[in-house]
């Protein structure tokens, strides 16, 4: 039977949640580099010492948010791994799941996709950095495995380099979805974003079709996936 958290555990959980929530908001509004621990503490209504008690540094706090975002992302991506789908259908479903992840959790998407814009936290946090890199590589690697299986199954034409294709798809997913984060008139709303990704998806499917004939399974929308929000 699960042990019920005591009062101290509940208080600690509330404090950590308040700190994370405040940091996520400020990082989004100002960027990590422009945000101070004092500002995070004030918004979270805790002392500066409390922030440092729970997190080694501002950079460690930032990486904790990235890991929390990855927890959410992984849950969405697991939905694509339906064994009843063909390998290429699973690839397409992964794109659908990634778009849903962005639409329903834009803050979490921002922490993962735009993390490259922030400076490296430094050697003292290398263990956390390595753990995050392992998790991202595992997510990408799962889709790459499905791409290789799709090539072997004849859903994708022979001769395609699965590793290079996965890097392109991953970059395309992140790049196009990031257009929704722009603050100018070039920003895409959710409906426009889905339409652009659907057009790109069809181009990719057509371009990867076996030369001897159409890949019927690959052209179909993933079973159980959202048709309106289809991605590449």
Detailed description of the structure:
The radius of gyration is 20 Å and the shape is elongated. The chain folds into two domains: 1-55, Arc Repressor Mutant, subunit A, CATH 1.10.10; 58-219, Tetracycline Repressor, domain 2. The protein has 232 residues and is mainly α. The chain contains ten helices and no strands. It starts with 6 loop residues before the first helix and ends in a 13-residue tail after the last helix. The chain has helices at 7-30, 37-44, 48-54, 58-78, 87-104, 106-113, 126-152, 162-178, 190-208, 216-219.
Lay out the secondary structure.
Layout: H1 7-30, H2 37-44, H3 48-54, H4 58-78, H5 87-104, H6 106-113, H7 126-152, H8 162-178, H9 190-208, H10 216-219
Helix pairs in contact: 1-2, 1-4, 4-5, 4-6, 4-7, 5-6, 5-7, 7-8
């Amino acid at each position: 039977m699960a042990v019920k958290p005591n009062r101290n555990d509940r208080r600690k959980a509330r404090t950590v949640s308040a700190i994370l929530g405040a940091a996520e908001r400020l990082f989004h509004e100002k960027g990590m580099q422009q945000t101070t621990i004092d500002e995070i503490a004030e918004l979270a209504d805790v002392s500066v010492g409390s922030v440092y008690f729970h997190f080694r540094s501002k950079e460690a706090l930032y990486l904790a948010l990235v890991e929390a975002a990855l927890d959410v992302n992984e849950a969405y991506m697991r939905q694509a791994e339906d064994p009843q789908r063909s390998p290429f259908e699973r690839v397409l479903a992964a794109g659908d799941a990634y778009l849903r992840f962005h639409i329903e959790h834009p803050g979490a998407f921002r922490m993962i996709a735009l993390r490259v814009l922030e400076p490296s936290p430094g050697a003292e946090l290398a263990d956390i950095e390595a753990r995050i890199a392992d998790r991202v590589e595992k997510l990408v690697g799962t889709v790459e495995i499905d791409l290789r299986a799709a090539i072997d199954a004849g859903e994708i034409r022979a001769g395609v380099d699965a590793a290079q294709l996965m890097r392109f798809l991953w970059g395309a997913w992140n790049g196009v979805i990031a257009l929704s984060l722009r603050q100018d008139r070039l920003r895409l709303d959710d409906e426009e974003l889905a339409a652009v990704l659907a057009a790109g998806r069809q181009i990719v499917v057509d371009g990867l079709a076996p030369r001897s004939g159409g890949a019927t399974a690959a052209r179909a929308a993933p079973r159980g996936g959202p048709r309106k929000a289809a991605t590449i």
